[in-house]
Input
Amino acid sequence: MSVRRIEAEPSGLVVELDHAALIIIDMQRDFLEPGGFGEALGNDVSRLKAAVGPLQNVLASARKSGMLVIHTREGHRPDLSDAPRHKVERGEPAMRIGAPGPMGRILVRGEPGHDIIPELYPIEGEPVIDKPGKGAFYQTDLELMLKNRSIDTLLVGGVTTEVCVNTTVREANDRGFRCIVIGDCCASYFPEFHKIGLAMIKAQGGIFGWVSSSPSVLAALDSD
Ligand code: C5J
Output
């Protein structure tokens, strides 16, 4: 059993690597590249690039350690039968969910824009969770997968900090998982929401979880 200490806030943690998983949330072209869902909503998608390099480093290290790695993607069936009407109709986006865009239909499974960016592409053996909502537990088999492997601790990175990362961490926390959010492996279209999104997780003694950084996680994973 490999046990490591990870520096984090509000306190450092001891983690058994055999019972930990890296969860990478929604690093999809639709959120990170021009012409996708994120840009259609009026966002500056270049803001999310900050998380890519740190996540690449943590992903390489997690793979080397043998840790379970799980990727998630937000998106819908081609017939949009799993897309709530209010999600599709809200706001005044340049293109709505399901509309044809330069990377295929916006936020639709199987389209190029729905896929994970090449820099963080899953390798064989890494489960990919397709989720219709913001949280990775809602209407997915993620909890079952984690329980089957006796996972109790999640290292979490991805986008966006205050939306899908926060929602997933809250869902995980209520289900009894300990979440360590890797701050610089997350990003938001709104820098102030990124900062507050992380602050909300670690406030009040870690009300939803802990916040660490990629150098701290790498130091722990790479130490023998
Ligand atoms: C959003 C996400 N921002 N992955 N999704 O709609 O955070």
Summary: The two ends are 12 Å apart (CA to CA).
